[in-house]
Amino acid sequence: MIPAIVSPYSFEGSILKIEQVVEKACKYGLKSLLIADKNFHSAVIFNDLCRKKGLIPVHGLRIGEKIFYARNRIEFEELVNAYNQKREPKLNWLDINSVKLVYYLENSHREAYEIMCQLLSSPSKLGSPFEGKFQDVAISLNCETYDLRVSVRFPQPQKSWLRSYLNDLVPEYRKRFEKEIEVIEKLGFEPYFYTVKKIIDTAKSLDICVGPGRGSAVGSVVSYILGITSVDPIKYDLLFERFLNEYRQELPDIDIDVEDEKRAFLIEKLSEEFAFVAQISTFATLSPKSLQNESKRLGIEIKSKTFDLLNGLPFHRSTHAAGVVIADSVLPLPIVPNTKPFLLEYDMDSLSKVGITKIDILGLTTLSLLHKLKKSLGLKEIPINDSLVYKEISSGRTHGIFQLERLPARSLCRQIRPQDIRELSDLLAVNRPGPLLAKLNELYAERKRGCGERSRFFEETYGVMIYQEQLMKIAVDLAGMTPAESDLFRKAISQKDLNVMKDAAEQFKRRAIGKGYDRFSIEQLVEIILRFSSYGFNKSHSIAYAHISYELAYIKHHFPKEFFTIYLKEHSSDREKIFLSVQELRSRGFRVVHPSINPVELKDNEFQLPLEVIAGVSNSIANMCITKGPFSSIDDFTRKTSIPLSTLERLVFAGAFDCLYSTREESIKAFNAFQKGYDSSLTEMSSIFGEHREEKVLKFTQKDIAAFEEQVYGFPLTPLQISFQENFAPLTEVFVSGRILPVALLVDSNFASDGTTIIRIKGNLPDGEYLCVVKPDCSIDEYYDLSKVDSVVYEPQSCFDHMDFEPASEREMVKVKLLDKKVCIDSTRPLLDHYKINVMLKNT
């Protein structure tokens, strides 16, 4: 009997790993294998693995009780075309009863197969293991081997299309443009640039925000002049050869960032612009964690042997987040049925094997936010040199800023302390696991502050090698390499293979010394290169992304109300982001007001949270409040909106009805009355006429209100009233900059407030007034009776200069060592993280 393997990409419960089936077929002495899936997801993998082992891959397509098969490449394309057209192929076929459908490798794997069927909600079949004597399919069916490569072309521009841009360029740019064109034309990549430009132009014509550029393409003047990128590579000394050079034969990689909310719309419009546009499949695989979750969901136990058999198998298909295939004619590729725009059945690796180059169009939430902010404010151009913006970034106040939001990034901002766009780029390049593990951030910070000896190489980054382009420039300047050779050197020196690295380093050393440079200096440089080359980052990419970070920081600094209004709506489901936004607004002097169902008149220093930040309140409910209001009571509100009682309760707890009932207490009282089905406003009137109704009087404390708010916001919102004068560090600063700071707090049932903001602290602390050393995770490092505290003394533990301090309260001071003497600086607090906090008690 002929074995017909069913791959796991058929999603029918098969647990066959194709490479294992191929190995076993070779052991059985088979010359070929037949695949009989209902789709083409695994066609390229199957074809590739069979051919590598000398087997003839026979591609079949199972439709009902028939298995249609392709004997050659022409018939394979008929198989694909028929599949795409939802018809039976005009090909030979096998009756399903004449083959042995194989879903698992051995008899002992049957249990794993049945569990996989359960996971996929697919009925298990009588399928057999890949065991026994089999008939060789290729000989009996007269099949031959063939590859699956596809001939594809990008849309073609007019002849000398790129050279038509030369006439409008000034000499400096013209010279570089001509140099790049020569390489592009030599490699035949002009259609690729033409296609990418058309994508960018289409996006801009649809008012879709496009990023300034991504990756090494930002180093190309051609990309800049065509409008593919918007960062001037000459201004920032970026290298074209890092992107493309004569030694590179594969197509360059130009990734496109667009606002995420409009990515699908853009691809839909591109389908009208080009002859063929399709997205790419990707496959989620079973992992130990997902298997555990699925076993709990189904209430089944998965044995360790079965666990191993299932681990790594494809579990479901989805759409690749970025990859798009574009061509100037329809391609003979299998398409997932009923998808528009088209979704290819092949994944990224399969497409690469058949000669298809994808173009990545990535959706960035940051660009959606940035576009909305610019449109709302009417901003066309943003100056890139605002010192106040860099000062704010350098203080670590980067909540909501692209790539700088997380706690370690905020600490890094204070350490790197960027003063311009180039140093902001340095910060982004260093903010990666490798450089941080190698402590490049510490080396950079120390040398910037004048601590330690600075290398005379890599002067633009204070003697620290950060960028791959720095390595390339050193190779050109010192070793006399051509720019193209310098990129080969970069690739070699960044290899994990030590022998390759050392050979490249020796070649560099010989050429540099041969040009007359001092041997000792060159050997020192080679040591630096070998140590840090693997951490080098693409400067072009870093500079481009620094522009996005800066523009957001600029808008946030100059237009904080507008920034946070849109930011909070964009992140209304993220409790942590909402909490941090509240802290930052308060740190800027705003009084944060709870949401309201009716419009409320606000003062300049007040910021009202949008309704969407309340758990369970969607954008549609918030819009309903705007369109159907104003409201006069809870009854009026429910009549006009018909929202669920649970959502109404959340609105009440959040304070959204305080505009009608003056206080939270009265709002909750009115809600309780509504629940019971009577109008609380009639209670007072009935007593006038001698009627008496028993009514429980509600009295809420500050902590009760905080607890209600915690249910609906994820954190308490209304600060506690304090009796002591605010002093020491403000509580907001702990979260805004991400530092550990001493704060005077009133603690009540583990709610803690300094009168400006409020948190729930981790751990248990008796009620009272304390000086607490608070961490950004809301835990308390140390605490002292506030009445016994005299002052706080900070002792910096790392290299610093005068810019690493900020004004503080009268009871805070910094002790530093200057000229071998310890000096106390009053009313000062360190900005850097590494310091000791010494709490000085009275009479001690």
Briefly say what this structure is:
The protein has 844 residues and is an alpha/beta fold.
Keywords:
single chain; 844 residues; alpha/beta; seven-stranded mixed sheet; five-stranded mixed sheet; 33 helices; 25 strands; 41% helix
Distance between the termini: 94 Å
**Binned strand content:** 15-25%
Major β-sheet strand ordering: 5-4-3-2-1-6-7
* Total number of beta strands: 25
Portion in helices = 40-55%
Low-confidence stretches: 680-694
Descriptive account of the structure:
- With 844 residues, the protein is α/β, with parallel strands linked by helices.
- The chain contains 33 helices and 25 strands.
- The strands form six sheets. It has a seven-stranded mixed beta sheet with strand order 5-4-3-2-1-6-7. It has a five-stranded mixed beta sheet with strand order 8-12-10-9-11. A five-stranded antiparallel beta sheet has the order 17-16-15-18-19.
- α13 packs across α23 and α14 packs across α23.
- The protein is globular.
- The N and C termini lie far apart (94 Å).
- 41% of the residues are buried.
What's the helix and strand layout?
Layout: E1 2-5, H1 18-27, E2 32-37, H2 43-52, E3 56-63, E4 66-70, H3 73-85, E5 93-95, E6 99-104, H4 110-119, E7 128-129, H5 137-141, H6 171-187, H7 190-205, H8 221-226, E8 256-259, H9 263-273, E9 276-285, H10 288-298, H11 304-310, E10 314-327, E11 342-344, H12 348-353, E12 359-364, H13 365-377, H14 387-394, H15 407-416, H16 421-430, H17 433-437, H18 440-448, H19 468-479, H20 483-493, H21 498-514, H22 519-532, H23 539-558, H24 560-570, H25 575-587, E13 591-593, E14 606-608, H26 619-628, H27 634-641, H28 645-654, H29 658-661, H30 664-676, H31 681-688, H32 702-713, H33 731-736, E15 741-748, E16 751-753, E17 758-760, E18 768-774, E19 780-785, E20 789-796, E21 805-807, E22 812-818, E23 821-826, E24 828-830, E25 835-841
Parallel strand pairs: 1-2, 1-6, 2-3, 6-7, 8-12, 9-11, 13-14, 20-22
Antiparallel strand pairs: 3-4, 4-5, 9-10, 10-12, 15-16, 15-18, 16-17, 18-19, 20-25, 21-24, 22-23
